[in-house]
């Protein structure tokens, strides 16, 4: 599923009840929130969380984040823009932010782990000759 930058912006504003459920962000809101999205994603990249995002200049473009990161991006963006709009975070939104960002961190860390080559280790006591290959059951 691909989502546009405007949909990300609208969802972040709706999560804060800044705009109604059926409204779309104004041009000024779109410009401001898109700037904050770019800044937030750069901060994430500096923190080692890379989801393939690159700076965006138009709200009509597809937001370059994978599906698994969308909820974390939208909910975290709500936190970043809340002070501008005098909005407070609901307990439900805080819970969503916590769960989605934690899941994103977990995925980011697991993708950075290298597989360890253990071919240099001994087979073990009583085993001679060849090694057992789990993929072929031999």
Indicate the low-confidence ranges by residue numbers: none
CATH topology: Hypothetical protein yqbg
Could you name the CATH class? Mainly Alpha
What count of helical segments does DSSP give?
Answer: 4
Q: Which bin fits the share of residues in helices?
A: 40-55%
H/E element sequence: HHHH
Main sheet characteristics: none
Q: What is the CATH homologous superfamily assignment?
A: P22 tail accessory factor (Gp4)
What is the correct CATH architecture? Orthogonal Bundle
Tally of discrete structural domains:
1
- How would you classify the helix and strand content by structural class? mainly alpha
Strand content: under 5%
Q: Give the termini distance in whole angstroms.
A: 41 Å
Radius of gyration, CA atoms, in whole angstroms? 22 Å
By DSSP, the count of extended strands is 0
Question: What is the overall pLDDT average?
Answer: 90
* Morphology call: elongated
């Amino acid at each position: 599923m691909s989502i546009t930058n405007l949909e990300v912006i609208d969802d972040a504003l709706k999560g804060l009840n800044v705009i109604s459920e059926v409204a779309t962000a104004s041009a000024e809101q779109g410009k401001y929130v898109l700037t904050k999205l770019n800044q937030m994603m750069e901060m994430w990249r500096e923190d080692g969380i890379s989801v393939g995002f690159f700076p965006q200049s138009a709200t009509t473009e597809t937001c370059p984040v994978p599906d698994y990161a969308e909820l974390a991006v939208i909910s975290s963006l709500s936190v970043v823009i809340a002070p501008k709009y005098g909005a407070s975070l609901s307990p439900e939104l805080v819970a969503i932010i916590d769960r989605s960002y934690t899941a994103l961190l977990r995925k980011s860390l697991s993708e950075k782990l290298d597989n360890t080559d253990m071919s240099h280790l001994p087979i073990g006591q009583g085993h001679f000759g060849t090694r057992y290959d789990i993929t072929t059951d031999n």
